[in-house]
User: Which sequence fits this backbone?
């Protein structure tokens, strides 16, 4: 069975026409339920992440403001969300889901969240729809528990994982690899351990060639004991906020390659869905579902 992590609380009510497609998590769950994958899945309902786990990567002042509802107007604008208690609950569930995905992956070899990938969140601030950095919290949690000694974060969202890079820039236990669009948010890039900035319009063949040339050497040279994979679908040609040109089949090929390469190397991998921005929620959920479909082929 394939561990899939989901909570109905991943979706909360948002103002009409808000640019973040919050309902995509619900539609993704419905999409997967309608497929044969449903019968191959072990659905896991996560618990909210604890404040102690968040404090491993975020500052006390920021957590106090976020959890307590005292974020400034400018901080809320930078986050992309108006603060609410329901937003806090949803965020803690999402981070807890990525932690649960890591734990399940270490137990079974492979697990996927139906949310996650909030890689723009910094230690002291939210940014770009990312309030708490779930990738960093889950990695720090695994290290603190001494489940692993070395973690590779593979971030294939169209936007650079700037928050994650900054959080781990002095931690040699975590290697950050970001392959992203060169001409995209954030305007000020951070330094990952490996950054590959792709030109506008990069399509399936060139994208996969760069990935195939980069991932295997990292698995050998860094020798991670866990991979956390951000499978953002905003690399799709029809995404509103991306400038690359992958198609649906390209997404599947990318996800299958990453998952299979890690499995062949006998390295546990926990995957999150990352970014994806489209008004057509069915089309968007179908893109995100490519990750889970690719994972199901490796059972």
Assistant:
């Amino acid at each position: 069975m394939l561990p899939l992590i989901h909570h109905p609380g991943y979706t909360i009510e948002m103002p009409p026409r808000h640019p973040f497609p919050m309902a995509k998590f619900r539609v993704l769950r419905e999409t997967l339920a309608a497929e044969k994958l449903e019968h191959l899945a072990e659905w896991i309902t996560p618990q909210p992440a604890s404040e102690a786990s968040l404090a491993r990567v975020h500052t006390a002042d920021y957590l106090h403001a976020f959890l307590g509802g005292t974020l400034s107007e400018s901080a809320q604008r930078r986050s992309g969300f108006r603060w609410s208690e329901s937003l806090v609950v949803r965020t803690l569930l999402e981070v807890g889901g990525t932690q649960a995905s890591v734990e399940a992956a270490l137990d079974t070899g492979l697990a996927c969240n139906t949310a996650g990938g909030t890689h723009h969140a910094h230690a002291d601030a939210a940014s770009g729809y990312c309030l708490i950095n779930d990738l960093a919290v889950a990695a720090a949690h695994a290290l603190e528990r001494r489940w692993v000694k070395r973690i590779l974060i593979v971030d294939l969202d169209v936007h650079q994982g700037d928050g994650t890079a900054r959080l781990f820039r002095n931690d040699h236990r975590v290697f950050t690899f970001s392959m992203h669009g060169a001409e995209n948010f954030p305007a000020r890039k951070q330094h990952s351990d490996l950054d590959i900035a792709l030109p506008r319009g990069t399509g399936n063949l060139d994208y996969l060639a760069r990935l195939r040339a980069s991932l295997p050497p990292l698995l050998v040279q860094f020798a991670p004991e866990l991979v956390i994979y951000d499978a953002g679908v905003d690399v799709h040609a029809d995404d509103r906020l991306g400038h690359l040109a992958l198609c649906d089949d390209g997404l599947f090929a990318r996800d299958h390659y990453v998952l299979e390469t890690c499995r062949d190397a006998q390295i546990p991998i926990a995957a999150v869905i990352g970014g994806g921005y489209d008004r057509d929620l069915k089309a968007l959920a179908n893109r995100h579902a490519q990750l889970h479909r690719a994972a199901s082929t490796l059972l």
